[in-house]
């Protein structure tokens, strides 16, 4: 087994079990402790695991919030498929909202050029992506900019959202579970996300399977507040049924 294959297997085990330990992994893969430690270090550098004493924990379980560029480098193929599937949810014309998130950033890149949209976003990176597009009326929400996520938050953004109404809000989340709803580490971002969903006729969540079953500090919506969840094929058996029982349709691509 190549190192890259072993590291992907380790990451999958960590996400499934919530934790991995060096001793168990060394025995399972028949390699030295030092080899496993190097694997865990490599995965930590990619922003998907956090080293702890004797092993590692996936960042989703820690409530740790990786920077946008780190998140953008993880689950790239899944995010591309999710973003492409989200194109089916665009209105023929009108206003849409794009939340700050790496998967939604990919949706922004794929927006069609033959239709005119008003796009509301609090994401600086998405705004820069859409600035050259002449078919898009870009509305950038103001406020305090969180450098970690490049998202505008606080009162200025909330006031603008209170006076806006869009056809579809494409939302991102750090975690989603039937019990806790949609959650994110930062309360200020949670407030803005809550206002985004309230401003939309329909709410569509774009989230890869690693977000499902994880809970973070600040709740901003219930699962029933969503109309559709678009995720990937890695979603564990039964989770889609649990989510759909709470209200939204689930589409795995």
Number of strands: 15
Strand content: 15-25%
Name the helicity range: 25-40%
| Gross morphology | elongated
Report the average pLDDT across residues. 90
Structural class: alpha/beta
In whole angstroms, the N-to-C terminal distance is 28 Å
Quickly count the helices: 11
Low-confidence stretches: none
Rg, nearest Å = 19 Å
Strand order of the largest sheet: 6-5-4-9-12-14-15
Q: What composes the largest sheet?
A: 7 strands, parallel
Secondary-structure element pattern, one letter each: HEHHEEHHHEHEHEEEHEEEHEEEHE
Keywords: DNA-binding, Repressor, Transcription, Transcription regulation
Protein name: Lactose phosphotransferase system repressor
Pfam families: DeoRC, HTH_DeoR
Function: Repressor of the lactose catabolism operon. Galactose-6-phosphate is the inducer.
Index terms:
alpha/beta, 253 residues, DeoR-like_C, 39% helix, three-stranded antiparallel sheet, transcription, elongated, DNA binding, Lactose phosphotransferase system repressor, Carb_Metab_HTH_regulators
């Amino acid at each position: 087994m190549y190192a890259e294959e072993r590291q992907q297997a380790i990451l999958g085990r960590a996400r499934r079990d919530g934790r991995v330990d060096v001793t168990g992994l060394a025995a399972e893969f028949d390699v030295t402790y030092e080899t496993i430690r190097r694997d865990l270090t490599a995965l930590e550098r990619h922003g998907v695991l956090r080293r702890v004493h004797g092993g590692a924990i996936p960042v989703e379980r820690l409530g740790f919030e990786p920077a946008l560029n780190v998140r953008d480098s993880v689950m790239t193929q899944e995010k591309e498929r999710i973003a492409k599937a989200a194109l089916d949810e665009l209105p023929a014309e009108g206003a849409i909202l794009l939340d700050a998130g790496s998967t939604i950033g990919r949706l922004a890149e794929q927006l069609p050029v033959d239709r005119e949209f008003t796009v509301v976003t609090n994401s600086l990176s998405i705004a820069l992506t859409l600035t050259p597009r002449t078919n898009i009326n870009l509305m950038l929400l103001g406020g305090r900019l969180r450098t970690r996520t490049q998202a505008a938050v606080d009162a200025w953004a909330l006031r603008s959202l209170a006076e806006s109404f869009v056809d579809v809000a494409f939302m991102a989340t750090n975690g989603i579970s039937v019990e806790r709803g949609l959650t994110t580490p930062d309360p200020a971002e949670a407030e803005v996300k809550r206002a985004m969903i309230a401003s939309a006729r329909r709410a569509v969540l774009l989230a890869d399977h690693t977000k499902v079953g994880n809970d973070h500090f600040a709740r901003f919506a219930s699962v029933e507040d969503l109309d559709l969840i678009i995720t990937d094929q890695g979603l564990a058996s039964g989770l889609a049924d649990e989510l759909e029982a709470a209200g939204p349709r689930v589409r795995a691509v």
